Amino acid sequence: MNEDRPGAARNASSSRREFLKRSAAAMALPAAGAGAPAASEGAAPAAPGKRPNLLMIIADQFRWDFVGAYGLNPIGVTPNLDGIAQRGVAFENAVTNQPLCSPSRACLFTGEYATQTGVWTLGPGLRPGATTLATILRGEGYTANYIGKWHLAPNSRQNPASHGYVPPEYRGGFDDLWEGSNELELTSHPYEGTIWNGDGTPMPFKDIYRVDYLTNLAVKFLRQPQPKPFFLVVSQLEPHFQNDANAFIPPGGTRRATPILSCPRTFGSFPATGRRNCRATTATSKALMIRWGPCSKHSMSGECWRTRS
Q1: Which one, of 94, 167, 177, 100, lies nearest residue 134 by Cα?
Q2: Where are the domains of the chain?
Q3: What is the DSSP letter of 208?
Q4: Catalytic (active site) residue 189
Q5: Tens of pLDDT along 129-148?
Q6: Cα(292)–Cα(298) distance, integer angstroms
Q7: Closest Cα to residue 234, out of 189, 295, 286, 187?
Q8: Class of domain 55-62+95-279
């Protein structure tokens, strides 16, 4: 059996690389096929066009049943996401090997089990040189760019510096634009904080909601000429709760204005705080979708990116 293991390992590695390539191709399909007429049976395939740019938006602790398209939230605060679901694909099943922050992110970017990535709990970092969506796409001529929360570099409470700046070897192949923080919830608050660029220069922000700040950085990138096709990840912290406040903090004024017509049943597990948390997470999630939602219509106008509270 020992003689078979190297071959098996090579096959597993090859299969994972193919999985990551197919995943990257699947991300590109909606953009490549948007508005294109269906090909008739037996027709020759269309000539390959310009490779689409890829944008992945991550929202931390965003509940799937908050999206109206799934029919479980009557509040109606995700009309743009609902429109995307109608025009595209909405998954009905999603599985992660380890439903915890860092491990699930490692699984997402590598296609490996948590026992293989080495990130099976909070603290360990993604191994330098790991094969990820970023490394695969860079090998195909894309740039790999990252904005926001990372949480895949080694970190510990005993080393506060590990919460912020991420050394290049721990960026998982995102070797082009880098504007982020390893543990954004520990280096920022909803209206002030710090992230770091690729050179380690601090990028402090103040008097702007964290969602808006990260979104504005993404908008700046998207409006710049890009000589190569790009893969951009925008990793928002919201609606994740603010750790040191032990609370969900929406943008000013929205918590009171957000109607609570119903809450998921799981909030009932916290009778003392359930309704308050439901209202707060609804407000933070609503803010997140207001910032990004209008741009699902492919508009790059100022109206598209206007901040609303």
Answers
A1: 177
A2: 55-62+95-279
A3: S
A4: no
A5: 999 999 999 999 999 999 99
A6: 11
A7: 295
A8: alpha beta
